[in-house]
């Protein structure tokens, strides 16, 4: 048995245009899966680049535009995956947003906008994926959270972001238990400090050298270092694994 082989599997990745989502989408293809890349319309060019990298691996790719805050968009996307590629086996819910604002001046609109993507969007994605996986009693769902759901990032005021990622972790564990006897495994990856476009924002970029020094492995991760954990959780190598928060942070939370 080739434990990490995804040949013949069909995957769906949200936020697949850049950063961790793009790396994982291409990594799943390298492991043998055909991959549907989902993202917002203004990310179309980036999604197309991801799809081109997937086809260069000899796998099929499908680009789907939509918004994870809209149930209809997700339902339509999953229907397109099943129609164009085949029955969905693997889902990676990576789409997310971030910004910083002191708690005392954080507006309700800012709070709701971030939660709509980071928490509600993950739930709606899981719901749409589960709707086709549960009747077949098989499938692997992987949500992407952050170490910010476990620790508070020193010097960055982002109570809404941190709490939304904690919500993703608990959402994952709750779904894992609801669906554990129905053939669906649900796990979460919590990346540590990683070079992505999201970390180009000034409030994080200015702290990256401090975070590097505070990481026991003394470096920041590349987005490609999230591929291995995702392939593990998507594959038969993790057939008895559900409800875990796989922290990939170079040891940061150990201090």
From TrEMBL:
Gene3D superfamilies: NAD(P)-binding Rossmann-like Domain. It holds the Pfam family adh_short_C2. Keywords: Oxidoreductase. GO terms for molecular function: oxidoreductase activity, acting on the CH-OH group of donors, NAD or NADP as acceptor. The keyword Oxidoreductase applies. The keyword Cell inner membrane does not apply. Belongs to the short-chain dehydrogenases/reductases (SDR) family. This is NAD(P)-dependent dehydrogenase (Short-subunit alcohol dehydrogenase family). It comes from Ancylobacter tetraedralis.
């Amino acid at each position: 048995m080739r434990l990490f082989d995804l040949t013949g599997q069909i995957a769906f990745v949200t936020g697949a245009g850049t950063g961790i989502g793009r790396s994982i989408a291409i990594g799943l293809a390298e492991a043998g899966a055909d991959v549907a890349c989902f993202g917002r319309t203004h990310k179309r060019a980036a999604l197309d680049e991801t799809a081109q990298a997937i086809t260069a691996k000899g796998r099929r790719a499908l680009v789907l535009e939509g918004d994870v805050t809209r149930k209809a968009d997700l339902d339509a996307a999953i229907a397109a995956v099943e129609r164009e590629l085949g029955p969905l086996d693997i889902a990676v819910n990576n789409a997310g947003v971030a910004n910083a604002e002191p708690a005392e001046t954080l507006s309700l609109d800012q709070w709701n906008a971030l939660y709509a993507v980071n928490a509600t969007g993950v739930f709606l994605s899981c719901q749409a994926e589960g709707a086709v996986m549960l009747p077949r009693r098989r499938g692997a769902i992987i949500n992407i959270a952050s170490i910010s759901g476990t620790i508070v990032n020193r010097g960055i005021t982002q109570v809404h972001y941190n709490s939304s990622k904690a919500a993703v972790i608990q959402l994952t564990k709750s779904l894992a238990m609801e669906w554990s006897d129905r053939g669906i495994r649900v796990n979460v990856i919590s990346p540590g400090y990683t070079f992505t476009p999201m970390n180009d924002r000034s409030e994080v970029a200015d702290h990256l050298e401090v975070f590097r020094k505070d990481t026991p492995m003394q470096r920041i991760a590349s987005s490609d270092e999230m591929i291995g954990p995702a392939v593990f959780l998507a594959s038969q190598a993790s057939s008895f694994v559900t409800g875990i928060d796989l922290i990939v942070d170079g040891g940061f939370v150990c201090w």
